[in-house]
Amino acid sequence: DGGITQSPKYLFRKEGQNVTLSCEQNLNHDAMYWYRQDPGQGLRLIYYSQIVNDFQKGDIAEGYSVSREKKESFPLTVTSAQKNPTAFYLCASSGRHGQNNEQFFGPGTRLTVL
Amino acid sequence: AQSVTQPDIHITVSEGASLELRCNYSYGATPYLFWYVQSPGQGLQLLLKYFSGDTLVQGIKGFEAEFKRSQSSFNLRKPSVHWSDAAEYFCAVGADSGGGADGLTFGKGTHLIIQP
Fold first, then answer.
1. CB atoms within 10 A of CB B2
2. CB 3.0-4.6 Å disulfide test: which of A24, A46, A74, A101 passes with A34?
3. Closest CA to B63 of B9, B24, B106, B23
């Protein structure tokens, strides 16, 4: 079945540690996205990538980093510079243009900083 | 910059009653508009989308939405709700910068409660 997988489902981190969230898709989509969701805040865009080896900052990129070495994969690293990392993180993918840019979402990773 | 407003944080509806969730957007050109639904602790599922053409859009699970350019609105409707419709609903607006699909801008969501 085609879809988006995120791992792990739950992640705990100590303050000062970097942590990497995995996102993989087998939908043959060019574009991939990372969003952060906080209660009552909706989803906010962290980073997105429209093609391999290229990515752009979203609205809240500070304290995060990404890479896009393969079309299928778009890992997100939450660095120690992110002041309030506890949140629900959602990965999505889509085609690049027009009618194809409906976004499909993964099941999410809940990150808790201890 | 684009923005989305969902004026209602919570809505309570009796099972079998009709539903309308409001969404207003701000965007300079013709937007791509979406409604997503989220169950607790889950990802988002697309209900319907508007890109162009007919302003009344049909989606899954019996939902529909109407794009009204003059009011900058894209309200979601359902004639008769079921208990399984209880969830968080998000309206979103998207754009294509010309180089490809940009990220979506989401509203803060409306939490739908269904009364028996």
1. 16
2. A46
3. B23
B109 contacts A42 by C-beta, under 8 angstroms: yes
Q: Which of A88, A91, A102 to mutate to test the interface with B (most CBs of B within 10 A)?
A: A102
Query: Is-contact B68 B44, C-beta < 8 A?
Result: no
What's the distance, Cα to Cα, between the start and end of chain A in Å? 36
B96: confidence class by pLDDT, cuts 50, 70, 90: low
Nearest residue of chain A to residue B97 (CA atoms): A97
Distance between B10 CA and the closest CA of chain A, angstroms: 11
Asked if the C-beta of B24 comes within 8 angstroms of chain A's C-beta atoms, the answer is: no
**Would an 8 Å CB–CB cutoff place B105 in contact with chain A?**
yes
Hey, CA dihedral for A40, B75, A46, B45, is it positive or negative? positive
pLDDT per residue over B97-112, tens digit each?
654 567 889 999 999 9
Give the separation between CA B78 and CA B60, rounded to whole angstroms: 11
